[in-house]
Amino acid sequence: MDFLTNAKARYSVRSFSPRPVEKEKVTIMLEAAQAAPTAHNAQPYVLYVMQSPEALAQIDACSRNRFGAPLVFVICYDKTQAWASPEGTSSGPVDCGIIGTHLMFAAHDLGLGSCWVMRFEASILKQALKLPENLVPVSLMPVGYPSETAVAGPRHSQRKPLLENVLFK
Ligand SMILES: Cc1cc2nc3c(=O)[nH]c(=O)nc-3n(C[C@H](O)[C@H](O)[C@H](O)COP(=O)(O)O)c2cc1C
Q: Which of 76, 83, 130, 137 is the most exposed place for a label (fewest CB within 10 A)?
């Protein structure tokens, strides 16, 4: 699938089939994440691949936005590994944003759906996963086969005109 086709066809899936995601597909998504650029190539990300019933229960304890997915990536960065700008701004959130984007488009290319989820309680997740103080969870990403009833949400088609947010100088 060429990139623009992938980018335009993807939508946030909020209803998943319980069908498990094949191990080979998980590996391809992880390869896509590995290929992502990170500031100074620091690769500060840490990905939790949540698939067991216990792990999915931990996700459900901190978020109502799993949507029945059989797999959830927890995308974190290590504060001690991320690059910082001269003003001290950590690259971690941006690095995780790019990692998540690679995961999302790799998933779609593999016939899977995904949803970017920021609506989770970080303190509950940190406790459940016993995250060390240096690990910051940035987002959850439920992934799986869309259910038969999955449809794009109303906001999916609401894109601003192509040049509204663009300035040519
Ligand atoms: C940073 C970010 C956070 C988001 N958090 C959530 C979330 O917590 N729950 C949810 O259902 N969707 C979430 N979304 C999905 C957006 O609502 C969705 O991408 C947007 O409405 C456009 O729809 P589309 O992805 O179907 O094109 C998030 C998306 C982004 C990029």
A: 130
